[in-house]
């Protein structure tokens, strides 16, 4: 019994270590996401604070979205061809937007996996950007010939996709110096139709639902989603994050995988020990059964 208690205690400790490592991963990634989010938002606000009013634009800190809210300035109703005024805005906005992102840095502390000592690293925020999405959004209105909700949704899907593609095509035509390869690799055009409306005081806002957003998706967001999904599947040890944050990849995740592997090896040894105990218990039961039979026979002879 004492041996079994020790084995179960070991299993419990292994599980606690694994859980702690998972919590550490969440903490590190959430910390990096928040630092990158704040640094990017501050840089964009500082760069464009004097332009937001005249462009009728806002910067959403939570989603890191730069949102243009004047659909009549962007496109004519039902069309996806950029109007000249919007071209002028984009020609001013987009190069400054990319340069601002290129100059954002933030500091983050990570523990050295060998010594446990906290080390401060200066990280380029652009290295933590998984993608920039040019998002086209529409409201739920459509021409009269589109009768059903599905027909209206599909009409607006094509319209919003065409509009976001027009924006991407135009910004790629601008003089972006050496930034063009990075933009081709990381900027995407996406249409959302009427699936993400804007509510104003709880009411459907038809005007503000028609918009174009430049939304930054951070690498930390994708890693959090991956962690959550792998945890649901019980496959956290299969995480294979490959990104430009070499420190996080080589230090934190490699150490995490090493600890998980060691825990799995120890659990395998524990399972072998438990199997041996099961075999011994089975033999003991057989011996006990034999003894009981002998006792029964002795009682009969005695009678």
- Which residues form runs of ≥5 with pLDDT under 50? 13-20, 240-250
Structural class: alpha+beta
Q: Element order, helices and strands?
A: HHEEHHEEEHHEEEHEHH
Main pleated-sheet profile: 5 strands, mixed
User: Which oligomerization state do the chains in this entry correspond to?
Assistant: single chain
Instruction: Estimate the strand proportion.
Output: 15-25%
The helix content, as a percent range, equals 55-70%
Rg calc: 30 Å
Can you put this structure into words, describing what you see?
The chain is α+β, with helices and mostly antiparallel strands and 303 residues long. It is built from nine helices and nine strands. The strands form three sheets. Strands 1-2-9-5-6 form a five-stranded mixed beta sheet. A two-stranded antiparallel ribbon has the order 3-4. Strands 7-8 form a two-stranded antiparallel sheet. β7 and β8 (203-204) form a beta hairpin. Mean pLDDT is 78; it is low at 13-20 and 240-250.
What's a concise summary of this model?
With 303 residues, the protein is α+β, with helices and mostly antiparallel strands.
Q: Which secondary structure elements does this structure contain, and how are they paired or packed?
A:
Blueprint: H1 2-48, H2 52-55, E1 57-60, E2 65-68, H3 71-74, H4 84-102, E3 105-111, E4 118-124, E5 129-137, H5 149-172, H6 180-186, E6 187-191, E7 199-200, E8 203-204, H7 206-209, E9 211-218, H8 219-233, H9 246-302
Parallel strand pairs: 5-6
Antiparallel strand pairs: 1-2, 2-9, 3-4, 5-9, 7-8
Helix pairs in contact: 1-4, 1-8, 1-9
């Amino acid at each position: 019994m004492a041996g079994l208690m020790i084995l179960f205690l070991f299993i419990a400790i292994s599980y606690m270590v694994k859980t702690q490592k998972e919590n550490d991963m969440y903490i590190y990634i959430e910390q990096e996401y928040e630092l990158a989010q704040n640094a990017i938002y501050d840089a964009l606000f500082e760069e464009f604070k004097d332009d937001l009013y005249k462009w009728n634009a806002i910067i959403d800190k939570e989603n890191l979205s730069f949102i243009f809210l004047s659909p009549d300035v962007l496109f004519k109703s039902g069309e996806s061809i950029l109007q000249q005024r919007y071209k002028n805005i984009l020609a001013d906005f987009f190069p400054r937007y990319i340069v601002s992102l290129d100059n954002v840095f933030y500091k983050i502390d990570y523990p050295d996996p060998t010594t446990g000592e906290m080390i401060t690293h200066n990280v380029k925020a652009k290295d933590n950007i998984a993608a920039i999405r040019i998002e086209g959004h529409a409201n739920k209105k459509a021409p009269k010939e589109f009768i059903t909700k599905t027909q209206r949704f599909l009409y607006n899907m094509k319209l919003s996709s065409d509009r976001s593609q027009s924006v991407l095509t135009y910004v790629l035509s601008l003089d972006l110096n050496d930034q063009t390869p990075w933009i081709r690799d990381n900027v995407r055009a996406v249409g959302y139709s009427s699936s993400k409306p804007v509510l104003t005081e709880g009411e459907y806002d038809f005007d503000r639902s028609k918009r174009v957003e430049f939304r930054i998706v951070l690498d930390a967001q994708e890693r959090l989603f991956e962690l959550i999904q792998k945890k649901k599947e019980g496959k956290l040890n299969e995480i294979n994050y490959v990104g430009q944050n070499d420190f996080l990849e080589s230090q934190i995740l490699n150490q995490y995988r090493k600890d998980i592997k060691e825990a799995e090896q120890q659990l395998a040894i524990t399972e072998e020990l438990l199997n041996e105990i099961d075999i011994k218990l089975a033999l003991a039961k057989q011996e006990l059964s034999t003894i009981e039979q002998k006792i029964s026979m002795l009682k009969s002879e005695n009678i």
